Amino acid sequence: MATTPAQRRLAEALDVLKKLQDGGRTAVKSSDLTRLRRESLVSNGFLRLIVKGWYMPSRPGEDTGDSTPWYAAMRDFIHGYCDERFGDRWHVSAAYSLLLHAGTTISPRQVVIHSPLGKNGLLKLPDDCSILDYKAKDFPAAVKIQTVDGVKALILPLALIRVPEAFFVTYAQDAQIALHQLRDASELNRELLEGGHSTVAGRLAGALRASGRKELADDVLATMRAAGFVVNETNPFNVAPPSLQFTRAQSPYVLRMRLMWQAMRETVFACFPPEPGIPADIDKYMEIVEENYQTDAYHSLSIEGYRVTAELIRKVATGNWNPDDNASDAEAKNAMAAHGYWLAHNEVKATIRGILTGANPGAAFRLDHASWYRNLFSPNVDAGFLKPADLAGYRADKVFIRNASHVPPSQEAVRDMMPELCDLLEAESSSAVRAVLGHFLFVYIHPYFDGNGRLGRFLMNTMLASGGYPWTVIRIELRADYMAALESASSRGEIKPFAEFIAKSMNAH
């Protein structure tokens, strides 16, 4: 099939865009592309405007109100835009710095930038977000600024000192996680002494003690008092932070998971009826699970990614890309997805049977979930839609959830978080809590490039089965409620809507 000049130009533009994305870019400057290539990408829906001179990759045909491309590009845009305006003389606020150190997956609607070159101006951004550039008079030395998740932030000790006291009330969980990132009190003491921060020292000593870090609290008080400062310890938390089982610095993502589990489990527990218990007739229970297969498979959802692929470039370059007529590709992929779901479902049934005959639910999930994933996608490998390497295991790059302000943690964080999820499941006594928090945290982590929703629901039903609850189908007509409840838990820490949704869905069967 002959190609038109417009198709060849689009293919060339997609090739450039792919190279930018492969290099880690999620926000694109006008100067990264020639005018003709940029216009081709914009007119075909592969780029959307952020602000003048900056674009975000998008997908053709998606709703312009879809916020996913923006949250995928946001941090890269902040870094690139601020570097362009301020060079290396900028950093985000102390509050956002602490959130970054605490491993936040949520970006604030307004990002405050401190720079000697700031003009106290407001830049409006997509999804009602904005940047406020604040003219900083007391700008820290370069060694006191570090890049965290692509954003220039204050080093942890300085951020703790500069953050307002209200942060410990508004962001109590993040504050506790940040305090647990301190390996010792040395750098914190140095910053406190250099600035003469006696009041702040008392507040941080109280916060450290409330968070279970007594040795560091005592160190701060003793050091400041030895230097002649009068320090009165105060506790800035209005509610006592939950106790953690360790005192040394650990992954902020692991800390967050433990704190969320502790904070959410009683809410979940209260939403469910008592456990039926292990069924006396396991074979009958498994027969009922099998009877639900077709309904469950029909209602299964998939989550899409946001990357330009070599295959897409090839199709456009050869004139075979037609977004209005790709029914054959879609039909083949749907067939492979259905086959994979059936294979994975059989693996899940084997896991459930093992649990009902005595295996620890968390330990069983730890051993088996990789097999669930491989079976879910092996037909796509056989059909050539995926490479064999795609079955290797956890993702090796970033992923994003459609229309969610929660951005799943980095691929490095996944390696810490998945073992922790298994530990939490293994230690939890309530099957309802295992089901709801297991599903929620699995999707929160998003350990795989694709299929996280399907695998999360497999996990949910496996844990429900461990207490004798029935297999529960999340119906397609309730998708909006389901996604909204997950987003509420991920972005605002509100688990009750999700727990109630799952309990209601279970009772509907």
Descriptors:
Fic-like fold, flat, single chain, 3 domains, alpha+beta, 3-stranded antiparallel sheet, 21 helices, 509 residues, 4-stranded mixed sheet
How many whole angstroms does the radius of gyration measure? 25 Å
Q: What is the CATH-assigned architecture of the largest domain?
A: Orthogonal Bundle
> Strand arrangement, largest sheet?
4-5-7-6
The average pLDDT is: 88
Shape: flat
Q: What is the level 1 CATH name of the largest domain? A: Mainly Alpha
Poorly predicted tracts of residues: 301-309
Helix % is 40-55%
Beta-strand content: 5-15%
From the N-terminal CA to the C-terminal CA, the straight-line distance is: 52 Å
Biggest sheet overview: 4 strands, mixed
Strand segment tally: 9
Can you tell me the CATH superfamily of the largest domain? Fido-like domain
How many domain regions?
3
The string of secondary-structure elements, in order, is: HEHEEHEHEEEEEHHHHHHHHHHHHHHHHH
- Count of runs of 4 or more consecutive helical residues: 21
| CATH topological fold name of the largest domain | Fic-like fold
Please, what is the oligomeric state? single chain
Q: Structural class of the secondary elements?
A: alpha+beta
